[in-house]
């Protein structure tokens, strides 16, 4: 049987998410990110295309590694300005019925007690369509911005995240019994006090004494997404994630990542398929291959190299502004003296990069694979990637907004449907039901169930 | 010239905001608070009625003073469950053009750096219709919930609030110059790095080093609302507030509050009319006086006394569960041994209350005045209150949701309009422009301007 693929739209409440310079394209509407109508229209487009979810990235902080300042980020709108992602969702929920909503939120900036209420509210207002992309922050500038001297070292951040989720699970899963809310208008009893329980958590990083402020939402715990690629990140994902984002430029590398995610789940008593794996992919679709390639060439003319290097410097922590565009990557070292070849080795070990090539590679596709062609060509490509790697679907990045998503919804999805490789209607129920075909609640193997 | 009154709808993302027990009324839709469509419909109703704003209260914490536990709050849905107010607004903004949006947020639970971004986002997405009701938290249970041993003493909380606003003003008003964003697609320059400035704040409670993450929103600083009635609260309002909520059961007491607010503004170098004063009022309007009184009597049958005492105990810190319903108020003492007569003295010094009378008084009207009658009767009443006290308008509380607001929009507003006492169309522009008829930005006398 043909495997049905899943599709998320990957975006951010900003001007320049992943394609530096493309905000200057005449058809690009990224600058409408401040308009609630822009987002409502995008949500309608995605639901018409039966996208599984819209996923909204976020950072608190700025990309100030390139040349050691934030000029490149300000000039090129590199994930800056960057607005709160959460507030986009209620308006998109109002105009849709099925689209899932993933929101990125870091465990660094808000105490889990009020945060748990925010997510319960989101799950209520969306009718059970909320997902949370758990991140530990990676921009040191974000920590400095709130007066922390520096980010905790990487593994410590995951320890904080473990405890943060533990607190959230207790609030979401254990504070209100399923039958606590009676809403008996005759007796005048809204809820049964014996079935509402205080959480008492006294851990290393957080203290909580109190009941959860929200009654149980359709999913209780929102669907947990995670994207950490490190060993510790993978371990965290294996334990907590119900969906994982991965990104790799070759099928071999991607397959090893997918296998590692599933192995990590299994190692922690869960099933390998308890995690839906999405991989980063950029699809540039035209009516014909030639149309698509014309589109791609047109897009490439709007790339900004200093913007691309600003983004890449922020991601890697290497100031790529110190090198000439034609210098080979092997000349580049990190602040700690490590060769940049090692940093990029997971990308494509066989390739010898120059700085300019790195910039081009990040500008359209954000270091992930790019498929350019007719609906048939791109569908072939996506099916081949899924077949070779075991991913369940794709996180589609945008080049021109909303054109990239509109093309996917209107051209690519119908082709996948013709092949039996995409749903022709949404499954009923909450986002978790739609993803797993089971219940709205965490399954019994998930650690949140035992919180 | 007839004074034009202003009207806000006062509500909360909860089942039982101000009228304990009324959620059981057959026409009450409070339990739909989890539905984003419920809120969108309410926003449409209010905009049809040319309401100035919808104001959403919030608490983090529970009402656990009554009998020393939270049974009364759980059973009667006394501001519990209580969901995040912020997320209601983007959906309401999508379906309206003019309605203002006030959101309550405490300075206790989130660092001002990410909070400032939340409010800038809200101001962007609403097209400049955002207001922030600044509160210092009053429920000790909220502090315990996040592991603080107890709330800071009252005056200290206002010192924290002063610094919190100072940080916010720096981020909102000073980080991005008005002409920082160029969005020059030809040159590929989104913003001018020389016009984006880092904030460096090192105070007693907060540290910030970084630029504001949001570009300037239509109002930059959202319209600042405040409701503190204490001496220190009034001083804070005089300095920061552009709108103030007051509440008093008699015109004489209300007038003294209004005068005190305006005097506090003047004492701090602002104009007395730099603050728009709204007073709490409940309007129960019918086609005729007899209709309205039938409605009122019907509402009263749904009041829950233990719910009312739960709410009042939480507000005052006095456990009213220790007394028999017919005991006079003079038997009641606070934990600190103070007579409750003193606590309630600002309400109506001449009146001798029993516990039962207190409960009834709080149940419909929430300790504020209640006008019951035909549109003409209620309009007379509101005009008389405004004339006698100097308030600019009213914060209308709901008894039955949305009926109380629908009646106000459909019956009361047309009557006020006939008298020339209510606008017949919204003024253009942002919420601040609508309120003051000046610019979208803080006026030069406001301390935020000099931040």
Any descriptors?
homodimer, alpha/beta, TIM Barrel, two-stranded antiparallel sheet, 15 helices, 13 strands
Topology of this structure?
The structure is a homodimer of 451-residue chains.
Chain A: E1 6-12, H1 36-48, E2 53-57, H2 71-76, H3 88-94, E3 100-106, H4 112-125, E4 130-135, H5 140-145, H6 154-174, E5 181-184, E6 189-191, E7 199-202, E8 207-210, E9 223-226, H7 231-240, E10 243-246, H8 251-267, E11 276-285, H9 289-300, H10 305-316, H11 340-343, H12 355-363, E12 370-373, H13 375-389, E13 393-397, H14 403-418, H15 431-436
Parallel strand pairs in A: 1-2, 1-13, 2-3, 3-4, 4-9, 9-10, 10-11, 11-12, 11-13
Antiparallel strand pairs in A: 5-6, 7-8
Helix pairs in contact in A: 1-3, 1-14, 4-6, 6-7, 7-8, 10-12, 13-14
Q: What does this entry look like structurally?
A:
The structure is a homodimer of 451-residue chains. With 451 residues, chain A is an alpha/beta fold. Chain A has a single domain, classed as Luciferase-like domain (TIM Barrel, Alpha-Beta Barrel). The first copy, chain A, has 15 helices and 13 strands. Chain A has helices spanning 36-48, 71-76, 88-94, 112-125, 140-145, 154-174, 231-240, 251-267, 289-300, 305-316, 340-343, 355-363, 375-389, 403-418, 431-436, and strands spanning 6-12, 53-57, 100-106, 130-135, 181-184, 189-191, 199-202, 207-210, 223-226, 243-246, 276-285, 370-373, 393-397. The longest helix of chain A is centred in the middle third of the chain and has 21 residues, at 154-174. Chains A and B meet through α1, α2, α3, α4 and α5 of A and α1, α2, α3, α4 and α5 of B.
């Amino acid at each position: 049987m043909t495997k049905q693929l899943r599709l998320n739209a990957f975006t951010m409440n900003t001007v320049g998410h992943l394609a530096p310079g493309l905000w200057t394209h005449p058809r690009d509407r990224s600058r409408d990110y401040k308009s609630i109508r822009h987002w409502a229209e995008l949500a309608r487009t995605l639901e018409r295309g039966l996208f599984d979810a819209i996923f909204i990235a976020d950072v608190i902080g700025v990309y100030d590694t390139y040349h050691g300042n934030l000029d490149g980020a300000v000039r090129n709108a590199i994930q800056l300005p960057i607005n709160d992602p959460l507030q986009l969702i209620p308006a998109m929920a109002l105009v849709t019925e099925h689209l899932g909503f993933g929101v990125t939120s870091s465990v660094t900036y808000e105490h889990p007690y009020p945060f748990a209420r925010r997510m319960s509210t989101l799950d209520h207002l969306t009718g059970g369509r909320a997902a949370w992309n758990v991140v530990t922050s990676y921009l040191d500038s974000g920590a400095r911005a709130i007066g922390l001297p520096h980010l905790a070292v990487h593994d410590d951040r995951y320890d904080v995240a473990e405890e943060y989720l533990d607190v959230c699970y207790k609030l979401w899963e254990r504070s209100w019994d399923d039958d606590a809310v009676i809403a008996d208008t005759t007796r005048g009893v809204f809820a049964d006090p014996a079935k509402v329980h205080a959480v008492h958590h006294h851990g290393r990083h957080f203290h909580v004494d109190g009941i959860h402020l929200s009654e149980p939402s359709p999913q209780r715990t929102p669907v947990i997404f995670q994207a950490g690629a490190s060993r510790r990140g993978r371990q965290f994902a294996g334990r907590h994630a119900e969906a994982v984002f991965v990104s790799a430029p070759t099928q071999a590398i991607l397959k090893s990542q997918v296998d590692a995610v599933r192995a990590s789940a299994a190692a922690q008593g869960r099933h390998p398929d308890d995690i839906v794996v999405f991989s980063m992919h950029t699809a540039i679709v035209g009516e014909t291959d030639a149309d698509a390639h014309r589109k791609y060439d047109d897009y490439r003319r709007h790339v900004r190299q200093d913007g691309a290097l600003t983004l890449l410097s922020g991601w890697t922590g290497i100031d790529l502004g110190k090198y000439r565009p034609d210098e080979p990557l092997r000349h580049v070292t990190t602040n700690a003296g490590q060769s940049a070849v090692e940093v990029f080795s997971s990308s494509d070990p066989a390739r010898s990069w120059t700085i300019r090539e790195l910039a081009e590679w990040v500008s359209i596709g954000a270091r992930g694979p790019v498929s350019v062609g007719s609906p048939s060509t791109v569908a072939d490509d996506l099916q081949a990637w899924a077949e070779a790697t075991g991913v369940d679907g794709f996180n589609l990045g945008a080049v021109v907004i909303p054109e990239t998503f509109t093309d996917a919804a209107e051209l690519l999805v119908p082709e996948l449907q013709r092949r039996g490789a995409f749903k022709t209607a949404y499954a009923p129920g909450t986002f978790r039901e739609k993803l797993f075909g089971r219940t709205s609640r965490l399954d019994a193997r998930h650690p949140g169930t035992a919180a």
